[in-house]
Amino acid sequence: MKRKALVLIFTAVFFVHTAAASEVTVMINGKDINAYNGIEPYIENDIAMIPIRAVAKNMGAEVLWNRETREVSVNDDIVFQIDKQYAYINNEPVKLDMPAVIVDGYTYVPLRFVSENMGAKVEWNGEKDIINICADKSPVNNATISSGTISENAGNSNTVPAASDENYFGGRKWSAIAEKYKNDASVDKLIFVKYKGDWDADVIMYTKDADNAHGWTKVASSSAYVGKDGIGEASEYVSVTPEGDFGITAAFGIKENPGTQLNYIDVTDSIYACGDREYYNKIIDTSKLDHKCSGEHMIEYVPEYNYGLVLGYNNDGIYGKGSAFFLHCKGKKPYTGGCIAVDEDTMIQMLKYANSDTRICIYNE
To answer: How far apart are alpha carbons 322 and 239 in whole angstroms?
Structure first.
């Protein structure tokens, strides 16, 4: 949707001086909105404040209240956060002359916002202290901010997440990924790896939750280490953690299965993460194969491989593209050879939630 052309016809620029609240009348298409349940506008610090529900309803818009986040949304395009100085239009902040407030159970916002962002024509009658808002009796159209490209793998969803989602997920990139998968029946767990620079990252796991206003509930989190060379394009020859959006193909551990739904590989003396061409990027059991493996003898990696998840990277086993990329437990070093390492308690928690419908998303914070 595109923003309607803004037309303002007034002489006092909404900073209405000297008038008391009871002396100001707001009309929409000639109708006094005081008739809407007796709600009255008011002036504070020379700024006219109007009840947004009454105005929006009379402009043909849908208004919703979110008790949990204390937000009022208009047609899902405009979001007001109570007692906050900013509103959001398609997830882009717009500063208000005064914060949105609740008075007697109704949300009030500055009149200026209506004229500048809801496509209305506004007239001020200074002699009679009447503000007249002229608007078509049709759903309000608002500015559309291009969502842009989140990343190569973050999807092309046209749905713009609400402003509160950005705060909940820690930024627009992450809320866009969560929005992308919210209605995808093939995904019900998300693991976000937020790279912070050097070897440091934060890891957060969410499970899909229809009862949560954001669609997802956080179930585990930890500080983390990534590859010694950061994140980016991985290969066999650099210590880089692969950047992107991947599945989870299996779980493993030197210790007993803590209760994951995934196929769990018990790491014994014959289990290797193979880097040889024949079984490249596969976890193999050499007791069942005629192969002398030169890859990682996994049982030697304590505590790193006490528990782990296998990333669905290079599933085709292209030689040299990189192998043995895991989410596993932290060891002594504050970095990895390309895996992601978290606290062991967090790793256990993630294993309990992880399943074949889990995605792990690795990007710059």
So the answer is: 10
Provide the CA 216 distance to its chain's centre, in angstroms: 10
Looking at residue 242, its amino acid is P
CA pair distance 72, 102, nearest whole angstrom: 11
* Amino acid symbol at 5: A
Residue 177 DSSP class: H
Domain 163-364 has CATH 3.30.70.1350: no
Q: What is the per-residue pLDDT across 189-236, written as a single tens digit (0 to 9) for each?
A: 999 999 999 999 999 999 999 888 889 999 999 999 999 999 999 999
Q: Which residue type occupies 99?
A: P
The answer to whether the beta carbons of residues 313 and 234 sit under 8 Å apart is yes
Instruction: Identify whether the C-beta of residue 222 lies closer than 8 Å to the C-beta of residue 320.
Output: no
- Residue 239 φ/ψ, nearest 5 degrees: -95, 60
Structure tokens, 55: 């105005």
Interval 153-185: pLDDT, tens: 343 333 444 446 778 898 889 999 999 999 999
> Whole-angstrom Cα distance, residue 132 to residue 120?
10
Q: What residue segments make up the domains of the chain, in order of their start?
A: 7-134, 163-364
For residue 351, give the nearest of 285, 241, 209, 253 by alpha carbon: 253
Quote the DSSP letter at residue 228. Answer: T
Whole-model pTM: value is 0.59
What is the b/e burial string over 175-188, where b = at least 16 CB atoms within 10 angstroms of the residue's CB? bbbbbbbbeeeeeb
For residue 356, what are its two tokens?
């074949």
Looking at domain 7-134, its CATH superfamily turns out to be Copper amine oxidase-like, N-terminal domain (3.30.457.10)
